[in-house]
Amino acid sequence: MHALRHLLAAAFALGLPMAVTGQARAPEDRAPPGEAPAARAGSPWASPPVRLIRPGVLEVGAVRLERERNVITFPAVVNMNAGIAEYLLVASSGKTHESVLRTDVPPYQIHVAMLLLGARGAGTNAFPDDPRQPLPGDRVSLEITWTAGGREHRRRGEEWVQHRQTGQPLSPGPWIYNGSRVVEGAFLAQLEGSIVSVITDSHALVNNPRPGHDNDELWIIRSEGSPEVETPVTVAIRLLDTHRPPRTIPGPPPPPRRPPASPTSPAPL
Fold first, then answer.
1. What is the pLDDT of residue 260?
2. How many angstroms separate the CA atoms of 159 and 198, rounded?
């Protein structure tokens, strides 16, 4: 129940009302003026079950949060293995024509899980106009795993994208979890399906902080070693900035302790 309260707080911060029964209540779809909004089956805002698997491990829909490892994981697929790469990962409703990976997991579920892990994102800090200035947010690492030929393969997020002219992949290092933005009650990552951006996109959840992130013609997909299109993968986002107190994900409460018997009263049978 304590974990659910923290989830509710994170959801309300996004403007996502949630039921107290252990499941999120789907935000109502926008309706034309004068018409009552109604949630539709199959809406991208469909409520995820929230489950405490064991102390420190929580599932928000298809997103698994592991507190001790400081990581969340969720499924995706290879969307493209050649072409322009403006995004590393988008939702299936997002800009799939320029993204390496895609996922059916709604961005707001990923964000709620990251909030529970302790991420703060950019907050009220705007993206700088000068691309040489650091992006606001938390440092995270990205890793993608898949199985092929009976073996598990691992690749850092930056190894999926390369410079168009030099052929060199993105330099190793962290990405920035900025957490998208809420404008007039709308969570922009959810509306646009933007999750991990290679070029500057404050509406995405995660951004590339490396030089050249302001140039949308500079990066292409690194085809070498890439699995086939539609290959299932697992995306791991690990929070590296752990100096902030994380939101607690407690285990089941201990059994109530019996009060000691009063020395003037007979001990209970």
1. 59
2. 12
Answer whether 231's CB lies under 8 Å from 170's CB. no
Cα→Cα distances 7→21, 197, 213, 247, Å: 12, 26, 33, 9
C-alpha to C-alpha distances, 247 to 5, 116, 218, nearest whole angstrom:
11, 5, 38
pLDDT of 26 above 90: no
pLDDT of 245 strictly over 60: no
Q: Please indicate, yes or no, if residue 150 is contained in any of the structural domains.
A: yes
Look at the block and give the residue holding tokens 């991990």.
196
Confidence (pLDDT) at 40: 37
Is 197 a member of any domain?
Answer: yes
CA 30 from chain centre, in angstroms, equals 24
Question: Which residue carries 């107190």 as its tokens?
Answer: 245
| DSSP element (H, E) containing 148 | strand 138-148
- In the chain, the N- to C-terminal Cα span, in Å, equals 34
Query: Angle at Cα 28 formed by Cα 25 and Cα 34, nearest 5°?
Result: 150
Euclidean distance between CA atoms 101 and 88, whole angstroms? 6
Residue 1, in any domain of the structure: no
Q: Is residue 227 included in any domain, yes or no? A: yes
- This prediction has a pTM of 0.76
User: Which residue range forms the structural domain that includes residue 145?
Assistant: 71-126+133-239
Number of domains in the chain: 1
